[in-house]
Design goal:
Low-confidence stretches: 557-561
Distance between the termini: 67 Å
Largest sheet: 8 strands, mixed
Strand order of the largest sheet: 14-15-16-17-19-18-21-20
Number of helices: 17
CATH architecture of one domain: 4-Layer Sandwich
Helix content: 25-40%
CATH topology of one domain: Purple Acid Phosphatase, chain A, domain 2
């Protein structure tokens, strides 16, 4: 009899449809029953693993439907005897306030005193336990949970995944304790998403996801030199193919709407498959992964969600779509930039831009990264290039500030939105990001005096939530606090020799906060609220940490000029 390996995960939902993703241990038919109706889908195979995506349609807006998932007619979810609430499919209602949660960077280690001391308390699990304690209170559950990168760590592996590695190959040989291929990625995702409270949460709150570097490898696509160095490693081909193939299965596929899935060439193979035998997608998926690494422009990982008249969410791939050639470096390539240009428009109350790497770093870090890029690209000749390249990789200077062309172009787009050049100006443009292992809010304004008045209605914010679980080493915390001070005006005499003027000035208005955190955002007409929460162990009860709010977005105030 088939059994669940992982999931169900509630993925893309809109007003009238929803998607449930599962991994099972053998070929079967997966069925979902909710609201007196049933939907089903056959599994497809990838390298001996079996998956299904069940599409539910014809639902009413604002539905909250408990469901049962069956494998070949036998109930598999919810699990018998579970003390967690019944899982529900929840469709959007555009007449209600929009409620999102977001965060990034989560290691998958046990939830006990030892690992709490080393990594902090898992903010996602604390949040799940809090929500499960009062399932009747819908305010505790967001419409969407946005994961902004490093959902898994393929290069900093836990004891559990190391045991799996050691059982199948010699970890004394390259790539040592890092992941090698699709099989190890599949096990890593199983570990990451199988803890009971988190598993329940993912089965009842829709999720959207975008990768960052650790989903593949630290510093992924930092520079041409980085790619050249990796290409020389004999194990890298299997690693990047396994990373991108598993990302498509475990993360990306569920980001897509039904219409977008219907246009995806790999998913078309699933839809068009006929006959009793299970479709084996492994060979085609590997070829796809190899092709997208060689030619990032051949596929788009970015995506957008319309959340009604109150909000639009645009999620940008800031890793795979990079242009790395000297003198042409950009965070995203020309095709991706054109797509983003189309997506960033007004006529919505709030424009949300998800990017794993913060668009607006704290001022000190931004200045450093901009200068390092200038050095690495030859501002002081060959010696400066070598120093800049070394610093770029040693210090992870790989954010938007280190890709000045793309940084300036996106800033100009945002100001065009804020000044009414792309439809009616929204109340806010908010970048949602992670990566940097501390959280903060920055507020930006037009650098040019002539533009400030026209953009004054629109609040431009950078909101960062990182990490969910992977605390910043204490030795680095003081440096983060110092870097957060002041205002980013990289146009001074010193920087201006190398770094072009920015279209924006900004400063950190709140934070940095250094706990493991999960952030929430609520939109109700022009009103925007955000808050950050952490897990706290009380009375030595490591099994059930309590959720505590750490910070709230301050009321709007005019930025300093």
């Amino acid at each position: 009899m088939p059994a669940l390996v992982l999931g169900p995960l509630l993925r893309h939902c809109d007003e009238t449809s929803a998607t449930l993703w599962v991994e099972v241990d053998s070929a079967c038919t997966v069925s979902v029953t909710a609201g007196g109706r049933s939907w089903s889908a056959p599994t497809f195979a990838v390298h001996g693993h079996h998956y299904a995506l069940v599409a539910l349609d014809g639902l009413a807006p604002g539905s909250v439907l408990p469901y049962v998932l069956e494998l070949d007619g036998d109930a598999a979810w919810p699990e018998p005897g579970s003390d967690l609430p019944a899982p529900c499919v929840r469709t959007l209602d555009h007449d209600r306030p929009v409620h999102l949660a977001f965060g990034s960077c989560r290691v998958s280690v046990p939830h006990d005193a030892e690992h709490h001391a080393a990594y902090g308390v898992d903010a996602l699990r604390s949040w799940a336990l809090d929500a499960a304690a009062a399932p009747e209170d819908r305010r505790r559950l967001p419409d969407l949970l946005l994961f902004l990168g490093d959902q898994v760590y393929a290069d900093e592996t836990s004891e559990e995944i190391r045991s799996f590695i050691a059982a199948r190959r010699d970890p004394e040989q390259a790539p040592w304790w890092e992941l090698q291929d699709y099989q190890e990625y599949a096990e890593l995702y199983r570990i990451a998403w199988s803890e009971p409270a988190n598993r329940w949460l993912l089965s009842t709150v829709q999720t959207a996801m975008i990768f960052d570097d650790h989903d593949v490898r630290d510093d992924w696509n930092t520079s041409v030199r980085w790619r050249e160095d990796m290409a020389r490693k004999a194990w890298w081909h299997d690693r990047i193919v396994g990373a991108l193939a598993s990302y498509w299965v475990y993360q990306h596929l569920g980001n897509l709407s039904p219409a977008e899935r219907a246009q995806d060439p790999l998913w078309r193979m699933v839809l068009d498959h006929e006959g009793p035998a299970e479709l084996d997608l492994g060979e085609a998926l590997d070829a796809f992964a190899e092709r997208t690494d060689d030619d990032p422009g051949s596929y788009r990982w970015s995506f957008a969600r319309e959340l009604g008249p109150q909000a639009r969410l645009v999620v940008v791939d800031s890793r795979a779509a990079r242009v790395l050639e000297p003198e042409h470096r950009s965070m995203i390539d020309a095709e991706e930039m054109a797509w983003l240009d189309d997506q960033l428009r007004g006529d919505v109350e709030h424009l949300l831009i998800g990017t794993s790497l913060p668009y607006l770093l704290s001022p000190g870090l931004h200045h450093v990264e901009a200068v390092v890029e200038a050095l690495a690209e030859g501002a002081l000749g060959r010696p400066g290039h070598e120093v800049g390249e070394w610093v770029r990789r040693a210090a992870d200077t790989e954010h938007w500030a280190a890709f000045q062309d793309g940084f300036r172009r996106v800033g100009e787009m945002v100001l065009d939105v804020a000044t009414g050049g792309r439809g009616s100006a929204p109340s806010s443009v908010v970048f949602l990001s992670g990566d940097v292992h501390h959280s903060y809010v920055a507020e930006a304004w037009a650098a040019e005096e002539s533009v400030r008045e026209r953009s004054g209605r629109t609040r431009i914010l950078q909101a960062v939530c990182s990490p969910i679980r992977n605390e910043l080493p204490r030795v680095m915390r003081g440096a983060v606090r110092v870097a957060s001070r002041g205002t980013a005006r990289p146009t001074g005499r010193f920087l201006g020799r190398w770094v072009p003027p920015s279209p924006l000035h900004w400063r950190v208005t709140q934070g940095p906060w250094l706990d493991n955190l999960l952030a929430e955002l609520e939109i109700d007409g022009p009103q925007l609220s955000m808050w950050w929460s952490t897990g706290v162990v009380e009375d030595d009860d490591h099994a059930r940490p309590r959720l505590r709010r750490v910070a709230d977005l301050s009321p709007r105030r005019a930025p300093a000029r």
